[in-house]
Structure formats: structure tokens, C-alpha cells
Amino acid sequence: MADTLAELKQKLVQGCRILAMEGQGDFIWGHVTIRYPDRPDRILMKPHMMGLNDITSDDVITVDIDGNKVEGKGLRHGEVFIHTEIMRVRKDVNCVVHTHPPDCVVFGSLGKKMQPIGHHGALFCEALPVFSKTSDLIRTPELGRAVAKQIGKFHVLLLRNHGIVATGTCVEEAIMRALFLDSACKQMIAAEAAGGARLVSKRADWMSKQKNMIPLHHSVAAFEHLVRKLPK
């Protein structure tokens, strides 16, 4: 059975708090959206002017596919177009995450390709597009469409000198991809600091990992594990 609107609001809150707990909070910046279960043109969104760890279900706002706020008391994030324009063209995407993990920003500045150092790096080897048209905020539909074009068929995107975008068919999948990407960037930075990785997974191995390592139910279980770790 699909999640109800109330359940999705609660998952959005949990996802935001998980991101904050795992080091992806940036004061009041960063945002998560979830598509309505019965209206693909309506999107739940974490409000502006609140931290990822601050919000409750009552704070969640609703925007339409054009980025207009249609429900809720809070302010809409200016970068709403990252979310709306990806969801407009990717019918498989029901959740979008945009955060500013420091290690992802640093890795993006190196101009290096992701290497399959560990499991998480393998997930994004040759599957990590980089948006370099601007490092400014994505505050227009035009820039949102450019981001959506750059991410293409992939699940995550580096916004160079800015942050990340992670997508999923559900909240759990998008949140875990954001965390996996952060982990992969941490490993790359550590390897670069040690002189660069010399031993990495073989192509056949990392391609197999991309297809088989983390099925959806594993992401759901990992998300639920992190929910249990949240401060009460």
C-alpha cells in the first residue's frame, strides 16, 4: 500500500533529520521534496528559514510543479526549481534531496573522476555527472531545467562548488543515495591526500555492484536503522 500524505510528511521530516545527523546540515539551507502519492503535480517540501533538524510535519509546505507554493505557512526555498524540473522530466523520481556536504563540495573542486575505491565509490563510478554551468544558486526554471538535463538518467549529481542532488523512487532511496555519495567523496579525498588510489575495484566488479549491491529494500532497511538512531 502506498504511503498516505501524512506518512510522507513524517518520512520527509525523518529524512531531513537523518541528513542533519549524518553531517549534511548547513544551518537553514538544504532541502528535500517528495511527490504527492496521488497528484504528480504536487510536491511536499521542507520550508526555508528552518534547519533540516528543526522541522515537524506541520511545517512541511506544498508546491506545484511550477514551483509555486500552494499550501503551508512556511517560506518556499528559492532553489525549488532543482526539484520541480527534475520531477517534471523524470516520472520515476518521487524524492529529491539537495544539500551541501563539505566533502562533496571539496571533491567536486578537485576535478577528479569518482573511483571505485570502496562499495560507495563503485556505485557512482561513471555515474556521477557534474553540473558546472554555474556555481550560483539554482533560482530560475531555466537553471532547474539545465540541472535536470545534466543529471539525465543518473541518480545523483555534483553541483560544482555548491553541493549535491540525489534522487530516488522514494524518500528512503534518495536519502541513502545522498549519504552514500558523501561517503564516496570522503574516501576519494582521503585517498588523494595519501597520494592517490593505486588499487581499485575491477570494472566487472564495480559494474556488478552498481546493479546488485543495494536493492531498494536494503535502502529502506538502512533508512529505518537511521530513524532508530535519531535523537528522541
Report on the architecture of this protein.
The chain has 232 residues and is an alpha+beta fold. It has a single domain, classed as L-fuculose-1-phosphate Aldolase (3-Layer(aba) Sandwich), CATH 3.40.225.10. The chain is built from 8 helices and 8 strands; from the N terminus they run αββββαβααβαββααα. Strands 4-3-2-1-5-8-7-6 form an 8-stranded mixed beta sheet, sandwiched between helices. A hairpin with a 3-residue loop joins strand 7 and strand 8. It is globular. The mean pLDDT is 97.
List keywords for this structure.
14% strand, 8 strands, alpha+beta, 44% helix, 232 residues, L-fuculose-1-phosphate Aldolase, 8 helices
Topology, please?
Layout lengths: L4 H20 L6 E5 L6 E4 L15 E4 L4 E3 L8 H10 L5 E5 L2 H9 L8 H6 L5 E2 L9 H11 L4 E4 L3 E6 L2 H23 L9 H10 L3 H14 L3
Parallel strand pairs: 6-7
Antiparallel strand pairs: 1-2, 1-5, 2-3, 3-4, 5-8, 7-8
Helix pairs in contact: 1-6, 2-5, 3-6, 6-8
Low-pLDDT regions: none
Overall domain count: 1
> How are strands sequenced across the largest beta sheet?
4-3-2-1-5-8-7-6
The number of strands is: 8
Q: Structural class, from secondary structure content?
A: alpha+beta
Query: What's the SSE pattern?
Result: HEEEEHEHHEHEEHHH
If you compute it from the alpha carbons, what radius of gyration comes out, rounded to the nearest whole angstrom?
17 Å
Beta-strand content bin: 5-15%
Q: Give the helix proportion (percent range).
A: 40-55%
* Count of runs of 4 or more consecutive helical residues: 8
* CATH hierarchy, class: Alpha Beta
Q: CATH superfamily, please?
A: Class II aldolase/adducin N-terminal domain
Globally, the shape reads globular
Our measurement of the CA-to-CA distance between the termini, rounded to an integer number of angstroms, reads: 28 Å
CATH topology: L-fuculose-1-phosphate Aldolase
Tell me, rounded to a whole number, the average pLDDT.
Answer: 97
Q: What would you say the CATH architecture is?
A: 3-Layer(aba) Sandwich
